[in-house]
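Need a sequence for this fold. Nothing fancy.
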């Protein structure tokens, strides 16, 4: 795992990226509203790093991944890859970009065509982008060895493999074209714990060997901490906190992040009993009708009246680049005072 903490040119960047799915109703299927699955996301990913992306189910993580890859067409915003806005590209231009932007899907059962052999599945991107069949079989067998499978598996079908082996096939397909960025969309959530460790270690080894850049989406915060350089936290379609891995896990600023981290199990029973859990009340609001002001205010243990009518920007709260979208961040010993409308509250003031 790389440790890119210094500032530098971003390999991948999103700016105010949005995906609002229309809600249709009535005989004429008129649009009566929108589901704001992704609602203005700004992310920057440096070359060679792993950016972890966490949050509750339905917060927009997978939709964001598909927007970056243009598997969904964004409602608004921009996606920059190597300095170019790829949302303006036509089909031919996107074919060249897709060589460098690949994805590993969550479900190793559904992401592989059951009617195709393993060799055909891994060879498909090579045939699509290379335009030649020369030495494809040899290359596929090399890829199988790289991900820990046997070249003899070339003619087998997906149903003949275990879940972990199928995910390795998905990894082999993703690295076939030597991409620069791989989006890992919860690649280990459907696997047993022991197999999860193997796949995560495989991804880390491949990153070192091929100089890969990852966006790693997961629910398991322990896995994210192990593999990521920086971590972004999403809530209701927005990024609410982003920081270096150690900084975020040791000193979370957003109350939502604080709650997520308090739910991580501790192996030591004594320490588990002693720690204070932060339990959120209520349900996640509907993305079709998000609350005004701070979208987290309906569940926040630190909510003030100011939060209900004002949207906190995702801005730098500390000198190390730690950013959080919160007027009243979780800071030890900080006194909560409501800011005036003319003077928005900022950490450290």
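Here you go.
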């Amino acid at each position: 795992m790389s440790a890119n903490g210094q500032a530098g040119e971003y390999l991948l960047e999103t700016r105010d990226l949005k995906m609002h799915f229309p809600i249709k109703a009535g005989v004429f299927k008129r649009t009566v509203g929108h589901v704001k699955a992704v609602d203005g996301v700004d992310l920057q990913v440096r070359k060679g790093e792993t950016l972890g992306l966490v949050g509750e189910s339905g917060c927009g993580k997978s939709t964001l991944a598909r927007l970056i890859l243009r598997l969904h067409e964004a409602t608004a915003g921009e996606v920059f890859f190597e300095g170019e806005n790829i949302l303006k590209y036509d089909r031919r231009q996107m074919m060249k970009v897709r060589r460098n932007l690949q994805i590993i899907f969550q479900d190793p059962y559904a992401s592989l065509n059951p009617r195709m052999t393993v060799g055909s599945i891994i060879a498909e991107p090579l045939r699509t982008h290379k335009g030649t069949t020369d030495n494809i079989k040899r290359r596929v067998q090399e890829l199988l060895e790289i991900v820990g499978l046997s070249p003899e598996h070339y003619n087998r079908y997906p149903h003949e493999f275990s879940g972990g082996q199928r995910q390795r096939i998905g990894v082999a397909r993703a690295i076939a074209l030597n991409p620069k960025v791989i989006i890992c969309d919860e690649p280990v959530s459907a696997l047993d714990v022991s197999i999860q460790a193997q796949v995560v270690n495989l991804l880390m080894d491949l990153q070192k060997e091929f100089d890969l850049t990852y966006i790693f989406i997961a629910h398991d915060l322990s896995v994210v901490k192990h593999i990521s350089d920086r971590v972004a936290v999403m809530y209701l379609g927005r990024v609410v906190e982003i920081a270096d891995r150690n900084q975020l896990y040791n000193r979370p600023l957003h109350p939502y992040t604080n709650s997520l981290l308090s739910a991580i199990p501790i192996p030591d029973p004594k320490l588990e009993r002693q720690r204070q859990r932060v339990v959120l009340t209520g349900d996640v609001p509907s993305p079709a009708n998000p609350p005004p002001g701070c979208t987290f205010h309906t569940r926040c243990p630190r909510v003030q009246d100011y939060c209900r009518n004002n949207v906190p920007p995702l801005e730098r709260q500390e000198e190390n680049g730690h950013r959080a979208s919160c007027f009243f961040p979780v800071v030890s010993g900080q006194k909560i005072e409501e800011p005036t409308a003319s003077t928005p509250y900022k950490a450290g003031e």
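For context: The chain has ten helices and twelve strands.
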